[in-house]
Design a protein that fits this description.
By secondary structure, the chain is mostly helical. The chain contains 10 helices and no strands.
């Protein structure tokens, strides 16, 4: 995951080379042991030999090989320079991205849940049509997930450290001395889990609104044909029963509109509860 506030051009560069992000995190360097000059040895010897011996038949193939090797060297050099530049960029922004291996398995799963919730919200029709504060969602939700990811990375690191420092079997009477540290980790995990559940609650309300919106749009299409349905009933059903059926059409339309409006309101309320107390930046 990459910091959503990072410049778009830098973000695209980092996303395009995940293996370089891992190299930057591990401190690895680009391999420079291969000498490109070695590529020229064989074609150069061929050209020299053809000139020295007067064997013109070797001259043209030798020059052809030199040209081919030259183009290969240029392509390899360009790739090397690009890789070196991207690796330097990754090192300069090492605190602006989080790799899967930066998190332990429980934290990976919790982050995935948060990402799935946000993806569901962003993919919804009510979001795309601007019915649930789309502009705010596009900024606040990615930032919310990034803040969660940062804290999960820190929690994973501290949990691993805790596992190394705390003995598996504590001497009698020492349990209470280690307990506050364990409880601190548990409290952080509980807080982040709660935050993710709020995101999932918001996503659930949005999906509910999406279904109501879909029904509402279908109803709008039918509403244009309401006079035709009313006339059909009036022409084929007794007067008293016709009035009842026509009233049912109007009542059903009003009910669907009410369900849609309520679902949108609930989604907005869920968003308000989530974003009212955002995680602060570190």
């Amino acid at each position: 995951m990459i910091d959503p506030t990072l410049h778009p051009e830098i973000s695209v560069e980092l996303r395009s080379s995940p293996h370089l992000l891992r190299m930057a995190r591990s401190g690895a360097r680009v391999d420079t042991t291969k000498n490109p000059a070695a590529l020229f040895i064989l074609p150069a010897l061929t050209v020299v030999l053809s000139i020295a011996t007067g064997m013109q038949i070797l001259l043209i193939p030798g020059i052809g090989l030199l040209v081919i090797v030259l183009f290969r060297w240029m392509a390899a050099d360009s790739t090397y320079r690009s890789t070196k530049r991207k690796l330097r960029l990754a090192r300069e922004n090492a605190d602006r991205f989080i790799l899967p291996e930066d998190l332990d398995h429980p934290c990976q799963m919790l982050l995935r849940r948060a990402q799935n919730a946000v993806q569901a919200i962003m993919a919804s029709r009510v979001h795309k049509d601007g019915l649930i504060d789309s502009v705010d969602n596009q900024v606040s939700l990615p930032e919310e997930v990034w803040q969660i990811a940062q804290r999960l990375r820190r929690l994973s690191s501290m949990h691993a450290e805790h596992g190394r420092l705390v003995p598996r079997e504590l001497p009698p009477g020492m349990e209470d001395a280690f307990k506050p540290y364990t409880e601190a980790l548990d409290t952080a995990w509980t807080s982040l889990s709660y935050r993710v559940r709020r995101l999932e609650k918001y996503a659930k309300q949005v999906l509910k609104a999406d279904k109501a919106y879909h029904a509402h749009r279908r109803l709008e299409a039918l509403a244009a044909k309401t006079p035709e349905y009313q006339q059909l009933i009036a022409d084929t059903v007794r007067d008293e029963l016709a009035r009842e059926r026509i009233r049912e059409l109007a009542d059903q339309a009003a009910h669907v509109r009410k369900v849609f409006e309520e679902s949108i309101l609930q989604a907005r309320q869920a968003a308000g509860e989530l974003l009212r107390a955002p995680l602060t930046s570190e």
